[in-house]
Amino acid sequence: MEHDIRALTARLIAQRWLPRKDPMVRRALIDETFRHEIDQRLASVGLRLLDNPYAAHVAVGLTPDALEPTFGSGREYQASNMGLTRDEIALLVVLWALIILPKRERQVTRQNLANEGQEELFAAEQPVAHGAEVSAGVSEASLIADFGPRLGGKTKVRNFMLGRLARLGFIERRSGMLLEGPLLDVALDYRLMADRIIHGTLAGVLSDAGHPPPAADAFALAGADDEDEFDGDMPEPGSEIF
């Protein structure tokens, strides 16, 4: 077991994310003893496993006590430890709202893209879905047309901002579509973000651009509680990513 623990820990640190279907990752998610050893090994160097049962990947991030010693000396940490600008963070949050919120709504209602909008008999008996079958993309041209003027111009968004988010693993760009990347559903905390978007300022911005967020009941189904109500501060996307 020691060899597997060292191997998985090294892969997580080196690659930053791994698919949930990976045999060692699956073992860490179902084997309590193995998971405890992985958590202990990561914690010894200020890291922790970022896991979301609805996400197709797991990732490694910093523990809260390691954030300031690791990134506190850099000016960019005030916005993001990845060096993202305010405009890039705003675009990241918009993409998260357009891709992850509808995806989560489909997951908690046991729907995939093929039967979206149809009633499903015995839906409660189906497993919670995650992955490509429930994650839809966003048209790059539509996104740029809607939000480019608000974020520094269409050229800046297309040539620089989207490219940076893709290189960091938040999104993938395929044939004019923006798809969920391996970090998008694990790096941003759904429990904190969803209610703030559904009931906050971004909901109006999305609606004005023709992208209304899903109904609030999807957030409730995902397991939020009253303690996570909006307190006026938007969380910092990526603040825990290693």
UniProtKB/TrEMBL annotation:
It comes from the Bacteria. This is DUF4194 domain-containing protein. It comes from Denitromonas halophila.
